[in-house]
Amino acid sequence: MTGALRARGSRPGAPPPGIREEEWRDWRWQMRHRIRSAEALRAWIDPHEDELRAIEALSQRFHFVITPYYASLMDPDDPECPIRRQVVPRLAELHDPLGEPDPLREVEHSPVKNVIRVYPDRIAFCVNNECALYCRFCLRKRMVGEPSWSMRRRELEEALGWIETTPEIRDVLLTGGDPLVFTDDRLDWLLGRLRRIPHVEIVRLGTRLPVTLPFRVTEGLCRMLERHHPLWLNTHFNHPRELTPEAAEAVDRLSRAGIPVGNQSVLLRGINDDVHTMRALCEGLVRMRVRPYYCYQAQLLEGTAHFRVPVERGIELFHALRGRTSGFAIPRYVLDTPGGKVPLEYPYLRGREGDRVVVETWDGSLWREPNPLD
Ligand SMILES: *Cc1c(COP(=O)(O)O)cnc(C)c1O
Ligand code: SF4
After folding, report:
1. How far is CA 372 from the centre of its chain?
2. Each residue of 233-292: pLDDT tens digit?
3. Whole-structure pTM over 0.90, yes or no?
4. Which end of the chain is more exposed for a tag (fewer CB within 10 A), N or C?
5. Cβ(115) to ligand 1 under 6 A?
6. Residue 58 Cβ contacting ligand 2 at under 6 Å
């Protein structure tokens, strides 16, 4: 195939000419036809020199994988397209003196493999190291797509055993990677096991599949999930162009299964760090009945300096939304730290010390985050 498949025709999110609707809407077909090379990418966009060189230079550093559905949302001619920049490598990833592999020190906070405990009553449980595609700003770059971080049945059992013997845990957040990349059967088994633990009151799913592979959210999946209530789900839309009819349909199915759907986005330079875009995202989400929950300051994560903005800029942005849109359309702007998430507002935000922003975490300790002003 030469030239951009979708440029010459179909709507973003819809199958391009030559692909049948049933195939396109089959999540397994999407998984099998994922883009993993510059050559495959050329079917969708005209890659820029910088992107081509970055795909080669970064091939050993962080996986390059995109679903056909998400590729169909990309602007074939604009390298600064907000969809492209989330998933196509750029040479800027090679210039990040501050970035670290594990800025939240999650490994140090793991009582057992892939369980991260920062708070007394709740955990993040990375049940799966796979995703449908890999985001260039992913916080868990160190583990996603890496076989050594996958969870075999025995390792899942060990983690479940730890939860069973830790009665303070009332809230379990299943994350990854992406838990919805599991088959329905495996997820059903896991949720069933968690539901049998009396002190686990709620289970949450953290998944980007409504955004990157909405066809995964089948009626069958939703029928299975609704047997395990109370379930909550947070997804991860970053840009209004991701709010397609296909994504809206996926979210609607989840909502009709009684699952409250929230959104956690990341504030990304040149993607959603202006008032107009953020407002369009947040208002589009509430039209889909998705509640904007958190917007994260981009972490000091290796290869992501080009995505970070000064904290002051993010504060101004969310300040500009207040009063100008529905209160529940405005997410909490937070910084995640090894000591937990901190709202970037009084009294948690203590000020600046040169290039560092000083915040106080929930347990009263201070954290100094390097965050240069422009
Ligand atoms: C984000 C997170 C949670 C959940 O935090 P909430 O503020 O309750 O949404 C729990 N554990 C870890 C390790 C987390 O990173
Ligand atoms: S979907 Fe989430 S976990 Fe997976 S690569 Fe993207 S940000 Fe990382």
Report:
1. 24
2. 999 999 999 999 999 999 999 999 999 999 999 999 999 999 999 999 999 999 999 999
3. yes
4. C
5. no
6. no
Distances in Å between the Cα of 265 and the Cα atoms of 17, 60, 118, 136 are: 32, 27, 20, 14
**CATH: 3.40.50.720, 3.40.50.1950, 2.30.29.220, 3.20.20.70. Which one for 107-338?**
3.20.20.70
32: buried, middle or exposed (CB in 10 Å: 19+, 13-18, 0-12)?
Answer: exposed
Supply the pLDDT for residue 2.
45
Distance CA 252, CA 307 (A): 31
Which residues of the chain carry a pLDDT beneath 50?
1-2
Nearest CA to ligand 1 atom 8: 122
Ligand 2 geometric centre to CA of 33 (Å):
19
Q: What is the pLDDT of residue 8?
A: 52
Mind listing the pLDDT tens digit for each residue in 4-26?
555 556 899 999 999 999 999 99
Closest-lying ligand 2 atom to the alpha carbon of residue 176: 3
Amino acid at 206: G
Cα–Cα distance measured from residue 243 to residue 235, given in angstroms and rounded to the nearest whole number: 12
User: Which residues of the chain are in CATH 3.20.20.70 domains?
Assistant: 107-338
Q: What residue's CA is closest to ligand 1, atom 7?
A: 341
